[in-house]
# Entry
Amino acid sequence: MVLGYRVETFVIRTRFAPSPTGPLHLGHAYSAITAHDFARVQGGEFLLRIEDIDQSRARPVWEAQILDDLHWLGLTWHGPVLRQSERLTTYSEAIEILNAAGLLYCCTCTRRDIAQAVSAPQEGVLTHSCPDSTVYPGTCRSSDETIKRIEGAPLRLNMALALNGRSSVSFMELISLQSLPKININNTKYIIDKIGDIVILRKNEEAAYHLAVVVDDAAQDITHVVRGDDLKLATPIHAVLQQLLGLPTPTYMHHPLIRDETGKRLAKRDDAKAISKFRAEGATPAGIRAMIGL
Ligand code: GLU
# Structure
Protein backbone atom coordinates (compact mmCIF):
# COMPACT_ATOMS: atom_id res chain seq x y z
CA MET A 1 0.00 0.00 0.00
CA VAL A 2 1.33 3.41 -0.94
CA LEU A 3 -0.56 6.44 0.48
CA GLY A 4 -3.60 4.29 0.97
CA TYR A 5 -3.74 3.10 -2.64
CA ARG A 6 -3.20 -0.50 -3.53
CA VAL A 7 -0.56 -0.66 -6.23
CA GLU A 8 -1.55 -3.34 -8.75
CA THR A 9 1.51 -5.07 -10.06
CA PHE A 10 1.62 -7.19 -13.16
CA VAL A 11 3.04 -10.56 -12.25
CA ILE A 12 4.59 -12.54 -15.07
CA ARG A 13 3.40 -16.14 -14.98
CA THR A 14 4.90 -18.82 -17.19
CA ARG A 15 4.28 -22.53 -17.27
CA PHE A 16 5.66 -25.83 -18.41
CA ALA A 17 3.02 -28.27 -19.63
CA PRO A 18 4.47 -31.69 -20.42
CA SER A 19 2.40 -34.65 -21.54
CA PRO A 20 3.39 -37.70 -19.47
CA THR A 21 3.76 -39.97 -22.47
CA GLY A 22 7.51 -40.51 -22.33
CA PRO A 23 10.70 -39.34 -20.64
CA LEU A 24 11.70 -35.72 -20.27
CA HIS A 25 14.45 -35.08 -22.80
CA LEU A 26 16.77 -32.20 -23.61
CA GLY A 27 14.09 -30.40 -25.64
CA HIS A 28 11.66 -30.42 -22.71
CA ALA A 29 14.42 -29.31 -20.37
CA TYR A 30 15.06 -26.34 -22.66
CA SER A 31 11.38 -25.27 -22.56
CA ALA A 32 11.05 -25.80 -18.83
CA ILE A 33 14.27 -24.03 -17.85
CA THR A 34 13.62 -21.11 -20.22
CA ALA A 35 10.09 -20.57 -18.89
CA HIS A 36 11.27 -21.01 -15.29
CA ASP A 37 14.23 -18.64 -15.53
CA PHE A 38 12.22 -16.01 -17.40
CA ALA A 39 9.65 -15.92 -14.61
CA ARG A 40 12.32 -15.86 -11.92
CA VAL A 41 14.31 -13.03 -13.51
CA GLN A 42 11.12 -10.97 -13.84
CA GLY A 43 10.09 -11.64 -10.25
CA GLY A 44 7.21 -13.71 -11.57
CA GLU A 45 5.85 -17.22 -11.09
CA PHE A 46 6.47 -20.46 -12.89
CA LEU A 47 3.67 -23.06 -12.90
CA LEU A 48 3.46 -26.70 -13.80
CA ARG A 49 0.66 -28.47 -15.62
CA ILE A 50 0.55 -32.14 -16.50
CA GLU A 51 -1.24 -32.55 -19.83
CA ASP A 52 -2.55 -36.04 -19.26
CA ILE A 53 -5.83 -35.61 -21.10
CA ASP A 54 -5.02 -38.36 -23.55
CA GLN A 55 -5.52 -41.21 -21.11
CA SER A 56 -4.68 -43.82 -23.72
CA ARG A 57 -1.08 -42.54 -23.79
CA ALA A 58 -0.48 -40.84 -20.41
CA ARG A 59 1.22 -42.97 -17.73
CA PRO A 60 1.66 -42.14 -14.00
CA VAL A 61 5.17 -43.57 -14.16
CA TRP A 62 6.15 -40.92 -16.74
CA GLU A 63 4.58 -38.18 -14.65
CA ALA A 64 6.61 -39.29 -11.61
CA GLN A 65 9.80 -39.34 -13.67
CA ILE A 66 9.08 -35.88 -15.13
CA LEU A 67 8.51 -34.36 -11.67
CA ASP A 68 11.66 -36.01 -10.37
CA ASP A 69 13.74 -34.75 -13.32
CA LEU A 70 12.38 -31.20 -12.94
CA HIS A 71 13.25 -31.19 -9.22
CA TRP A 72 16.69 -32.52 -10.02
CA LEU A 73 17.17 -29.74 -12.58
CA GLY A 74 16.54 -27.32 -9.71
CA LEU A 75 13.16 -26.06 -10.93
CA THR A 76 10.47 -25.18 -8.43
CA TRP A 77 6.93 -24.18 -9.27
CA HIS A 78 4.25 -22.04 -7.78
CA GLY A 79 1.18 -23.72 -6.31
CA PRO A 80 -0.14 -27.20 -6.92
CA VAL A 81 0.41 -29.11 -10.16
CA LEU A 82 -2.64 -28.84 -12.42
CA ARG A 83 -3.65 -32.13 -14.04
CA GLN A 84 -5.84 -32.07 -17.12
CA SER A 85 -7.39 -35.42 -16.22
CA GLU A 86 -9.01 -33.66 -13.23
CA ARG A 87 -10.55 -30.86 -15.29
CA LEU A 88 -12.92 -32.63 -17.66
CA THR A 89 -16.02 -30.81 -16.40
CA THR A 90 -14.40 -27.43 -17.04
CA TYR A 91 -13.56 -28.47 -20.60
CA SER A 92 -17.15 -29.65 -21.16
CA GLU A 93 -18.41 -26.24 -20.04
CA ALA A 94 -16.14 -24.49 -22.53
CA ILE A 95 -17.24 -26.84 -25.32
CA GLU A 96 -20.85 -26.08 -24.45
CA ILE A 97 -20.18 -22.34 -24.92
CA LEU A 98 -18.91 -22.97 -28.45
CA ASN A 99 -21.74 -25.38 -29.16
CA ALA A 100 -24.40 -22.99 -27.92
CA ALA A 101 -22.94 -20.35 -30.24
CA GLY A 102 -23.56 -22.76 -33.16
CA LEU A 103 -19.87 -23.02 -33.98
CA LEU A 104 -19.46 -26.79 -33.66
CA TYR A 105 -20.65 -29.63 -35.83
CA CYS A 106 -20.59 -33.34 -35.42
CA CYS A 107 -18.17 -35.23 -37.65
CA THR A 108 -18.63 -38.90 -38.42
CA CYS A 109 -15.73 -39.23 -40.87
CA THR A 110 -13.17 -41.93 -40.29
CA ARG A 111 -9.50 -41.31 -41.04
CA ARG A 112 -10.02 -43.30 -44.20
CA ASP A 113 -13.01 -41.12 -45.26
CA ILE A 114 -10.86 -38.03 -44.81
CA ALA A 115 -7.93 -39.55 -46.72
CA GLN A 116 -10.25 -40.52 -49.55
CA ALA A 117 -11.91 -37.12 -49.71
CA VAL A 118 -8.50 -35.50 -49.82
CA SER A 119 -7.21 -37.77 -52.59
CA ALA A 120 -10.38 -37.38 -54.69
CA PRO A 121 -10.89 -33.64 -54.65
CA GLN A 122 -14.36 -32.28 -55.14
CA GLU A 123 -14.93 -28.90 -56.62
CA GLY A 124 -14.78 -26.18 -54.01
CA VAL A 125 -13.38 -28.47 -51.32
CA LEU A 126 -9.91 -27.64 -50.13
CA THR A 127 -7.56 -30.58 -50.17
CA HIS A 128 -4.09 -30.14 -48.83
CA SER A 129 -2.09 -31.02 -45.77
CA CYS A 130 -0.77 -28.90 -42.97
CA PRO A 131 2.64 -29.91 -41.60
CA ASP A 132 1.40 -32.50 -39.14
CA SER A 133 -2.06 -33.54 -40.27
CA THR A 134 -4.52 -33.33 -43.09
CA VAL A 135 -6.77 -30.30 -43.28
CA TYR A 136 -10.29 -31.58 -42.86
CA PRO A 137 -12.05 -31.33 -46.23
CA GLY A 138 -15.35 -30.28 -44.66
CA THR A 139 -17.43 -33.32 -45.59
CA CYS A 140 -19.69 -33.26 -42.50
CA ARG A 141 -19.88 -29.49 -42.39
CA SER A 142 -22.05 -29.52 -45.46
CA SER A 143 -24.14 -32.56 -44.58
CA ASP A 144 -27.59 -32.01 -43.07
CA GLU A 145 -27.52 -35.32 -41.24
CA THR A 146 -24.61 -34.31 -39.06
CA ILE A 147 -26.33 -31.28 -37.61
CA LYS A 148 -27.64 -33.41 -34.77
CA ARG A 149 -25.23 -34.56 -32.09
CA ILE A 150 -24.18 -38.19 -32.29
CA GLU A 151 -22.90 -39.58 -29.02
CA GLY A 152 -19.23 -40.53 -29.11
CA ALA A 153 -18.61 -38.73 -32.42
CA PRO A 154 -16.13 -35.82 -32.54
CA LEU A 155 -17.19 -32.19 -32.71
CA ARG A 156 -15.35 -29.84 -35.04
CA LEU A 157 -15.11 -26.07 -35.02
CA ASN A 158 -16.55 -24.42 -38.11
CA MET A 159 -13.52 -22.19 -38.56
CA ALA A 160 -14.98 -19.91 -41.24
CA LEU A 161 -18.04 -19.28 -39.08
CA ALA A 162 -15.88 -18.79 -35.99
CA LEU A 163 -13.81 -16.15 -37.75
CA ASN A 164 -16.97 -14.42 -38.85
CA GLY A 165 -15.68 -12.29 -41.70
CA ARG A 166 -12.63 -11.03 -39.82
CA SER A 167 -9.50 -10.47 -41.85
CA SER A 168 -6.89 -11.33 -39.25
CA VAL A 169 -6.18 -12.90 -35.89
CA SER A 170 -3.23 -11.64 -33.92
CA PHE A 171 -1.31 -12.26 -30.77
CA MET A 172 1.77 -10.80 -29.11
CA GLU A 173 4.98 -12.69 -29.61
CA LEU A 174 8.49 -12.45 -28.19
CA ILE A 175 11.14 -13.41 -30.70
CA SER A 176 13.60 -13.76 -27.84
CA LEU A 177 13.21 -13.23 -24.14
CA GLN A 178 15.38 -10.14 -24.35
CA SER A 179 13.36 -8.44 -27.10
CA LEU A 180 10.18 -6.40 -26.92
CA PRO A 181 6.97 -8.17 -27.93
CA LYS A 182 5.76 -7.70 -31.48
CA ILE A 183 2.38 -8.42 -33.04
CA ASN A 184 2.07 -11.67 -34.96
CA ILE A 185 -0.74 -11.13 -37.47
CA ASN A 186 -2.37 -14.11 -39.15
CA ASN A 187 -4.53 -13.81 -42.19
CA THR A 188 -7.85 -15.57 -41.53
CA LYS A 189 -7.93 -17.01 -45.05
CA TYR A 190 -4.71 -18.79 -44.15
CA ILE A 191 -6.26 -20.13 -40.95
CA ILE A 192 -9.37 -21.37 -42.76
CA ASP A 193 -7.46 -22.89 -45.69
CA LYS A 194 -4.38 -24.28 -43.97
CA ILE A 195 -5.69 -25.16 -40.51
CA GLY A 196 -9.39 -25.57 -41.10
CA ASP A 197 -12.08 -27.15 -38.95
CA ILE A 198 -10.12 -28.54 -36.04
CA VAL A 199 -11.50 -31.15 -33.66
CA ILE A 200 -12.65 -29.68 -30.34
CA LEU A 201 -14.20 -32.78 -28.80
CA ARG A 202 -12.45 -36.00 -29.73
CA LYS A 203 -14.24 -39.26 -30.13
CA ASN A 204 -15.31 -40.76 -26.82
CA GLU A 205 -16.03 -37.31 -25.40
CA GLU A 206 -12.42 -36.27 -24.69
CA ALA A 207 -11.63 -32.56 -25.03
CA ALA A 208 -8.97 -31.90 -27.66
CA TYR A 209 -5.56 -30.44 -26.80
CA HIS A 210 -6.32 -27.03 -28.37
CA LEU A 211 -9.42 -26.56 -26.22
CA ALA A 212 -7.84 -27.81 -22.99
CA VAL A 213 -4.68 -25.74 -23.36
CA VAL A 214 -6.46 -22.39 -23.74
CA VAL A 215 -8.85 -23.14 -20.88
CA ASP A 216 -5.92 -24.12 -18.66
CA ASP A 217 -3.63 -21.23 -19.58
CA ALA A 218 -6.46 -18.90 -18.58
CA ALA A 219 -7.23 -20.83 -15.38
CA GLN A 220 -3.58 -20.61 -14.37
CA ASP A 221 -3.41 -16.89 -15.31
CA ILE A 222 -0.50 -17.51 -17.63
CA THR A 223 0.85 -14.27 -19.07
CA HIS A 224 3.69 -15.74 -21.15
CA VAL A 225 3.64 -19.11 -22.91
CA VAL A 226 7.15 -20.34 -23.70
CA ARG A 227 7.16 -23.43 -25.91
CA GLY A 228 8.86 -25.00 -28.90
CA ASP A 229 8.57 -23.99 -32.53
CA ASP A 230 6.63 -27.19 -33.21
CA LEU A 231 3.58 -25.54 -31.63
CA LYS A 232 3.87 -22.29 -33.56
CA LEU A 233 1.16 -23.33 -36.01
CA ALA A 234 -1.15 -24.04 -33.06
CA THR A 235 -0.91 -20.52 -31.63
CA PRO A 236 -3.32 -18.81 -34.09
CA ILE A 237 -5.83 -21.58 -33.24
CA HIS A 238 -5.36 -20.81 -29.57
CA ALA A 239 -5.87 -17.09 -30.19
CA VAL A 240 -9.14 -17.84 -32.04
CA LEU A 241 -10.39 -20.06 -29.22
CA GLN A 242 -9.40 -17.53 -26.55
CA GLN A 243 -11.43 -14.88 -28.32
CA LEU A 244 -14.44 -17.15 -28.79
CA LEU A 245 -14.37 -18.15 -25.12
CA GLY A 246 -13.68 -14.63 -23.83
CA LEU A 247 -10.28 -15.64 -22.41
CA PRO A 248 -7.15 -13.49 -22.35
CA THR A 249 -4.44 -14.19 -24.92
CA PRO A 250 -1.00 -14.53 -23.32
CA THR A 251 2.20 -13.39 -25.01
CA TYR A 252 3.90 -16.30 -26.78
CA MET A 253 7.50 -17.21 -27.28
CA HIS A 254 8.34 -20.13 -29.58
CA HIS A 255 11.90 -21.28 -29.15
CA PRO A 256 13.94 -23.27 -31.69
CA LEU A 257 13.79 -27.01 -31.18
CA ILE A 258 16.72 -28.92 -29.77
CA ARG A 259 17.91 -31.32 -32.45
CA ASP A 260 20.08 -34.41 -32.44
CA GLU A 261 23.49 -34.66 -34.13
CA THR A 262 21.84 -35.37 -37.49
CA GLY A 263 19.57 -32.32 -37.24
CA LYS A 264 16.45 -34.35 -36.47
CA ARG A 265 14.16 -32.94 -33.77
CA LEU A 266 14.03 -34.92 -30.57
CA ALA A 267 10.94 -37.02 -30.01
CA LYS A 268 9.56 -38.65 -26.88
CA ARG A 269 11.00 -41.98 -27.99
CA ASP A 270 14.52 -40.52 -28.11
CA ASP A 271 15.58 -42.21 -24.91
CA ALA A 272 19.17 -41.45 -25.86
CA LYS A 273 18.51 -37.79 -24.96
CA ALA A 274 16.42 -38.49 -21.85
CA ILE A 275 17.40 -36.48 -18.78
CA SER A 276 17.21 -39.69 -16.72
CA LYS A 277 19.87 -41.26 -18.92
CA PHE A 278 22.21 -38.29 -18.51
CA ARG A 279 21.57 -38.43 -14.76
CA ALA A 280 22.43 -42.12 -14.66
CA GLU A 281 25.67 -41.31 -16.46
CA GLY A 282 26.61 -38.78 -13.80
CA ALA A 283 25.61 -35.50 -15.51
CA THR A 284 24.91 -32.46 -13.33
CA PRO A 285 22.06 -29.95 -13.75
CA ALA A 286 24.67 -27.37 -14.78
CA GLY A 287 25.96 -29.85 -17.34
CA ILE A 288 22.46 -30.24 -18.82
CA ARG A 289 22.12 -26.44 -19.06
CA ALA A 290 25.47 -26.28 -20.84
CA MET A 291 24.42 -29.00 -23.30
CA ILE A 292 21.41 -26.95 -24.39
CA GLY A 293 23.14 -23.60 -24.29
CA LEU A 294 21.36 -22.16 -21.25
N1 GLU B 1 1.73 -30.88 -23.72
C1 GLU B 1 2.46 -30.39 -24.84
C2 GLU B 1 3.71 -31.23 -25.04
O1 GLU B 1 4.14 -31.93 -24.14
C3 GLU B 1 2.88 -28.95 -24.68
C4 GLU B 1 1.75 -28.03 -24.90
C5 GLU B 1 2.07 -26.54 -24.75
O2 GLU B 1 3.13 -26.18 -24.25
O3 GLU B 1 1.21 -25.77 -25.11
O4 GLU B 1 4.26 -31.20 -26.12
The pocket of glutamic acid is lined by residues 17-19, 51, 213, 227, 231 (CB under 6 Å). The two ends are 37 Å apart (CA to CA). DSSP finds ten helices and eleven strands in the chain.
